[in-house]
Every structure is written in structure tokens, then in C-alpha cells.
């Protein structure tokens, strides 16, 4: 894939180096087009070394090649990171006063802008208007992260991490269209990761869930405009997604409390976490040691079924009747039935609106960056999600959620 990486003149320009490396290491041909101001932060030689291509900022270099037209025409994807307030204003205004803005005018491929600026600049009506204009033209403008900015300032406007930008850029290339803003005004609760049930101060009962699928769902939902609360159990040290409120928990009981806290205001609840079915009846106050006092067995008690409890709470009127509830099922087949046989039975037993089904084992689903599976509906519908990145599957699941959401809950 031919990728143009534009770099605006902000302090976050140094992060574009990691983004460029991600594209090149995944086999894509990269052409970097910085603004003149960006070269005040990162040198031309750095961009050329990382991309393996010459770097120019003006339209008068290599005039016979007509680069300000050719680069945009030939690109399969354009990503601008960071996109400063000034750069977005020039893009929205249709300016073509340097190589990057001219290239964007000729590009007909998916375009993704990753804003980075101080909070006051991001929240200014002029910037908000420019963002709205760009989105109306089919440009994907990401929501920025919140956190430490230049100096002592903190707030919204931080550039999302390069890995997050790369994942969303690849999702954009897989979808071949802009990420829709079809979840604006909606509140989503997403769970992710595994829970850990302590045996003693050292040991626990757990599972192999990495949390990557749940984090992808939260990330993509936020970039489609949703107000997302992510309730995260144990994960493989995943960074918090941009524009997402993250609540960290450890045990199944803690996750249940958090889910029930945020559920009443949710338009949709997506239960992607791998919640432990059992926990020890007691937790030893000190490490269980081998020897004469070593227990022969460890009694377990069943944890409450959070998903089934949500469905029951909806029936009881404790959460809105229009709230869409999505379950996840990690299944394996055996001599009594295949994955879908068990999944259909689980959907009927749980009573949720949608059930995402993953076949697990042999390097599938857990601890990997790709996924595959099926989507079952309470109406009897069944569809293959197809294999792809976890971000791509997240997008397909959210497409189905949007299809089930009640128009009555629109903003």
C-alpha cells in the first residue's frame, strides 16, 4: 500500500517517527510530507531514513514529476499526524500553499487526521467548525487523547499513541471509507480483559484474555462519536484508548459492581471481557505452602453471571428497555457439538441481543492481534464476521449495534 504520512508543525511531530516505522515494517511504501514548521521539530534526514524516500515541503522541487498532483493521485491512504490547528484550518479552507496541502487536495483515497494541540485550541469554535467541515467531506478526524501536553498543561488535545493511530489507519484502509460518526450522542459501556480471582497473596485463578478485542471496541466506538466507558480487567499493559474513560478492576465481583454502576445510562453494553466463572470460597491471608498443611483441594464458588444479570435487570426496568446488550462467547467444539451449536444455546440461555462468537485454541482469539468469528442475533440472524484485525471486527460488531439501537435513544 502506498501511504503518505503528513506531519504538522507541533511538538508531537516526534511521535510520527514511530508511526512511519510501523507502516514501513508492515511492508507499506511510505512518502513523508512534513510542513516547513515540522522540520523545526524533526529533521529531514530522520524522515528520509525512516521512509527510504526523499522528503520535500514545497511544490517547486522535482517540478517535472508534478509531485503536488502525483503524490495525492497515487496514494492509497493519507495520514496526517500531528494535525495542528493551523494545518486543519488550511486543509478545511482548501489551501494549497505547500506540498502537503496540495497533495491533500488531489487525494481521492481515505484520509485520516490525528489532531494535536492545546485544549483551548481544540475546543475553540473555529477548530470545532473546521473539524465538522472536514468530517462532512469524508475525512476521518480522530478524537484526541487527554493527558500531559506541552509544559505543565494537561487536558484534551494530546496526540493519540502511534500504535493507536496505525491501527485506526489500517481499519480505515480495510473499510475503504471514513469512520462514520453514527454513535454521536450515544453512551457505550465496554468490558475488556480477564478477571483474576485471588487464591492467596501470590496466586490467582485467571485466563488468557489480553483485552485487545475489548480495547479495540472501545477505541473504535469513541472514534465513531460515542461516549465510552471501558471497564478493564487484567490486560497485557494496553495503553488507555484516546477519548475513553477507563475504569480498572481486578475481580469478577468488582467488574459486576462497575458494570451495574454505568449500565443505567448506557445505550449499549458490550461485554467483551473474559470473566471468571468461579472464585475461591476463601482467600488465604498468607501464601499457601507445600507440606503438612497443604490443602488437598481448593473449594470454589460460582461468580454471578454479569451478562445474564444485565438482561434480567433490563426486564425488571432497572436499566432502559432500549439498551442493547452484546455478549461474547469463546467456544470450542467437542464430540457433542461444534462451536455454533454451543453458541446458539448460550444466546438462548443468556437472552442478550447480539452474541459475538469466537472459536478459541490453536492461536485463535486470545493474545493475538487478529480475530475471527460469527455474530448471532436474538432474531435468529447469523453472519460470519470474517477474519481480520481486531479493530476491523470491532467495526463490524459496532455496525450491528448501530442497526439494533432504537431511534428513540437518538440525541
Tags for this model:
13 helices; five-stranded parallel beta sheet; 411 residues; elongated; eight-stranded mixed beta sheet; 22% strand; single chain; alpha/beta
Structure, described:
This protein has helices at residues 16-25, 44-51, 67-74, 85-92, 99-106, 119-123, 125-136, 162-175, 212-223, 252-262, 306-315, 339-350, 390-404, and strands at residues 2-7, 29-34, 77-83, 111-115, 140-141, 145-148, 154-158, 187-192, 197-198, 204-205, 227-232, 244-248, 268-271, 278-280, 300-302, 324-331, 354-359, 370-371, 374-377, 382-384, 388-389. By secondary structure, the chain is α/β, with parallel strands linked by helices. The strands form 6 sheets. The protein has an 8-stranded mixed beta sheet with strand order 12-11-8-13-16-17-19-20, with helices on both faces. It has a 5-stranded parallel beta sheet with strand order 2-1-3-4-5, with helices on both faces. Helix 1 links the parallel strand 1 and strand 2. The protein is elongated, with a radius of gyration of 24 Å. The mean pLDDT is 93.
Topology record:
Layout: E1 2-7, H1 16-25, E2 29-34, H2 44-51, H3 67-74, E3 77-83, H4 85-92, H5 99-106, E4 111-115, H6 119-123, H7 125-136, E5 140-141, E6 145-148, E7 154-158, H8 162-175, E8 187-192, E9 197-198, E10 204-205, H9 212-223, E11 227-232, E12 244-248, H10 252-262, E13 268-271, E14 278-280, E15 300-302, H11 306-315, E16 324-331, H12 339-350, E17 354-359, E18 370-371, E19 374-377, E20 382-384, E21 388-389, H13 390-404
Parallel strand pairs: 1-2, 1-3, 3-4, 4-5, 8-11, 8-13, 11-12, 13-16, 16-17
Antiparallel strand pairs: 6-7, 9-10, 14-15, 17-19, 18-21, 19-20
Helix pairs in contact: 1-2, 1-8, 3-5, 4-7, 9-13
